[in-house]
């Protein structure tokens, strides 16, 4: 639960919510059908032009969302800090890690990235393909879709592990035909105090990172990306819900981006089968997460002073 006020919605907030909901619904129905229609043509013939057109349509949809944020939610103050060594552009290829506190995180990423970075994708489960419209849109837009088997299934049939790896490799390699940003929430789930306590996380502000997904992406794409980017999102007044955000109840959002140098030994390592490499990689990620935890402490202290 956010630290935002829990007062009953005022007429102004109700009006704002109706405006946001109506515009987003209308925008989705306007932009969605062309993406799906063009996507169907790929069943017969792959076309880079179709991919580029779909990305433009999707960015147009995001532009409407960002217009709402800037014009209907003007009370939200954005503090964005970018590492001076991080040269972002719309033609780049980026892997991105981020802390995860709220469904709003993805909207923050889209708001920041729309004019600075290529369209952000993230790993999704193959099962989402069966969700009408949403699953098909993910597939059409090139989101890596994973067929993951459980540990029990792999124990019965070890070959499934390598089949999963091959599926992941094909999904990632499909991104290389165009600029991309591939996002990985290393915590694997949204941070809550309950999850933090249950994990006995050694980090004050973060859950334990799951290094396997990042290791996989770096193994497949590492020598062909322009940068590994770490995004840190802070909500000084508490992590909001999605409804709170779109009602304008989030006074401030801070975003910090830094470039992470990738050691040469990381590229080409076998995380799944090489225990020594896996331990070394996990230690590297733990160090990155320690630095991130310390950064969040500094940012929290800064906003407590300025609040």
Number of helices: 10
Instruction: Give the biggest sheet.
Output: 6 strands, mixed
CATH class value: Alpha Beta
Give a count of the beta strands, DSSP E runs of length 2 or more: 8
What is the beta-strand fraction? 5-15%
Q: Architecture, CATH level 2?
A: 3-Layer(aba) Sandwich
Give the low-pLDDT segments.
1-5
The helix-strand sequence is HHEEHEEHEHHEHHEHEH
> Into how many domains do the coordinates divide?
1
Protein name: Acyltransferase
InterPro entries: Plipid/glycerol_acylTrfase
Keywords: Acyltransferase, Transferase
GO molecular function, one term: acyltransferase activity
Q: Nutshell version of this structure?
A:
This protein has 307 residues and is of the alpha/beta class. Helix content is 48%, strand content 14%. β4 (124-125), α4 (134-140) and β5 form a beta-alpha-beta unit.
Q: Helices, strands, pairings?
A:
Elements: H1 11-41, H2 48-71, E1 77-82, E2 93-98, H3 104-113, E3 120-122, E4 124-125, H4 134-140, E5 145-146, H5 151-156, H6 159-173, E6 180-185, H7 193-199, H8 212-221, E7 227-234, H9 242-246, E8 252-260, H10 275-306
Parallel strand pairs: 1-8, 2-6, 2-7, 3-6, 4-5
Antiparallel strand pairs: 7-8
Helix pairs in contact: 1-2, 6-8
């Amino acid at each position: 639960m956010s630290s935002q006020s829990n007062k009953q919605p005022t007429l102004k907030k109700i009006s704002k919510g109706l405006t946001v909901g109506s515009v987003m619904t209308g925008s989705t129905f306007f932009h969605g059908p062309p993406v799906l229609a063009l996507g169907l043509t790929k069943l017969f013939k792959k076309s880079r032009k179709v991919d580029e057109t779909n990305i433009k349509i999707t960015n147009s949809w995001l532009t409407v969302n960002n217009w709402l944020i800037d014009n209907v939610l003007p009370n939200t103050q954005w503090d964005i800090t970018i590492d001076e060594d991080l040269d972002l552009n719309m033609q780049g290829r980026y892997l991105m890690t981020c802390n995860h506190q709220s469904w709003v995180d993805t909207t923050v990423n889209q708001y920041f990235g729309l004019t600075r970075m290529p369209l952000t994708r993230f790993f999704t489960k193959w099962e989402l393909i069966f969700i009408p419209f949403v699953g098909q849109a993910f597939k059409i837009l090139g989101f890596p879709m994973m067929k993951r088997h459980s540990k029990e299934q792999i124990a019965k049939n070890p070959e499934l592990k390598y089949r999963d790896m091959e599926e992941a490799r094909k999904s990632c390699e499909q991104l290389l035909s165009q600029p991309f940003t591939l996002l990985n929430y290393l915590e694997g789930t949204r941070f809550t105090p309950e999850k933090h306590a249950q994990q006995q996380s050694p980090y004050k502000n973060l859950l334990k990172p799951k290094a396997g997904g990042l290791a996989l992406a770096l193994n497949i794409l590492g020598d062909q990306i322009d940068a590994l980017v770490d995004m840190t999102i802070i909500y000084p007044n508490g992590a909001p819900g999605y409804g709170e955000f779109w009602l304008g109840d989030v006074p401030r959002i801070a975003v910090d981006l830094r470039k992470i140098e990738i050691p040469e030994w990381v590229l080409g390592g076998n995380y799944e089968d090489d225990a020594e490499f896996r331990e070394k990689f996990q230690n590297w990620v733990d160090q990155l997460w320690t630095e991130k935890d310390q950064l969040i402490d500094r940012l929290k202290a800064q906003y407590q002073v300025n609040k």
